[in-house]
Amino acid sequence: MPRHNDCRLLSFDDLRSRLDRDPLPEKDSRTGSAVALAVGAGAVAYLAWMALRTPARPAAVQPVGNFDISRYMGRWYEVARIDQRFEKGLVRTRAEYTLAPNGSVQVVNRGFDPRRNRWDEARGKAQVVGSSNEAALKVSFFGPFYAGYNVVALDEHYRWAMVVGSSLDYFWILSRTPVLPSGVRQHLLAQAQQIGINLDRITWVMQDGANPTGG
């Protein structure tokens, strides 16, 4: 019968002793260094590609035109959403957008977790993709990994907005006030249904002193 492999844990001194006794062939050492460099270069290239790529956009999603990003800055209340892991259970959610001198957008998302009795906060960045007058952005809260942010409906006075992400699973209705103006809710839901959003998945978010249905 073949012998079992020796599975004993080796100390640092044991490993050093073995390497001193049986050093790697010079060719293998050079090959290992070359492989390590190639892997490192590949990782850097991949991260750079991730930072530059345009996120996917659902076929039925068309961002609004004549978009003025400076008017979009400021505070938005999240009045409705399709729940995601990072927001599930949060109430009084809101977003603050600030335009940086280089044209990028600083993002601060905040929501209250009633189960833990605390505020949760996430900071990220966003930038316009494609034409500067089209409301298509990409947003990141983790390194070079971006997701789509497409404004598909926008009030002419920038009082409310509807956003769809890289897939129809990501959906938000935003308002400058904790409650939507009268009549806007049904208008946005009709448009969302036309895009393909599953209305049964939409959660209406509790805001301070506001009707969560946006009626």
Describe the structure.
The protein has about 220 residues and is α+β, with helices and mostly antiparallel strands. The chain has helices at about 10-20, 25-50, 70, 185-195; strands at about 75-80, 90-100, 105-115, 120-130, 135-140, 145-155, 160-165, 170-175, 200-205. The chain has an 8-stranded antiparallel beta barrel with strand order 1-2-3-4-5-6-7-8. The longest helix is centred in the first third of the chain and has 27 residues, at about 25-50. The termini are far apart.
- How large is the share of residues in beta strands? 25-35%
Give Rg in angstroms.
25 Å
Report strand order across the widest sheet: 1-2-3-4-5-6-7-8
Query: Spans of 5+ residues with little confidence (pLDDT < 50)?
Result: 1-27, 36-52
What would the average pLDDT be, to the nearest integer?
Answer: 80
Structural class determined from secondary elements: alpha+beta
For the biggest sheet, the summary is: 8 strands, antiparallel, barrel
Count all strands and give the number: 9
How many angstroms separate the termini?
78 Å
Keywords:
single chain, 215 residues, alpha+beta, 8-stranded antiparallel beta barrel, 4 helices, lipoprotein
Q: What is the compact description of this entry?
A:
With 215 residues, the protein is an alpha+beta fold. 25% of the residues lie in helices and 32% in strands. The chain has helices at residues 12-21, 26-52, 69-72, 184-195, and strands at 74-82, 91-99, 105-113, 118-128, 136-142, 145-154, 160-164, 171-175, 202-204.
Question: What's the layout of helices and strands?
Answer:
Blueprint: H1 12-21, H2 26-52, H3 69-72, E1 74-82, E2 91-99, E3 105-113, E4 118-128, E5 136-142, E6 145-154, E7 160-164, E8 171-175, H4 184-195, E9 202-204
Antiparallel strand pairs: 1-2, 1-8, 1-9, 2-3, 3-4, 4-5, 5-6, 6-7, 7-8
